[in-house]
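Late entry, evening session. Most of the bench is empty. Finally got around to the prediction I had been postponing all week. Sequence below, unchanged from the version circulated by S.P.
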Amino acid sequence: MQIRRATAVDAESVAYLLRDAFREFERLYTREGYAATTPEAAVVRERLKEGPTWVAEIDGHSVGTVSAVLRDGAVYVRSMAVAPGARGQRVGHRLMDEPFQLAVERKATRLFLSTTPFLFSAIRLYESLGFRRTGEPPHDLHGTPLVTMARPARNVG
């Protein structure tokens, strides 16, 4: 497995990965919440200007993605997705190394993210990496419930 930094050329692939990873959960989102979770390639290209996105590849095929944005001295992890066929291969663990490294490089105080309470496997992954629920907003994404999770940036990786 290789992890590399995404470029604008990868926007379509990243958008596809997001749709593929979240398709099975679409019925649990509001229409607007699902659209925000699975942005089109044009939105992905704009997000690349806000912070880094990484792509995981196995045998030349994109199997996962994660993005990060610096916010108020912290690293916000967003758009984490692993293709259904690649789950169970530690793709998510490997991808999360990248935002952790960014936090170290930028001397961030913490890492945080928002997820939906029905993404049980993702929550288990985040908890195994030291993230804990904080009770902080946002509590929903266009009507889809959210939970915020965070961990200190010290001792990351």
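Two things to note before I forget:
DSSP finds five helices and nine strands in the chain.
The chain has one domain: 2-152.
Will write this up properly tomorrow.
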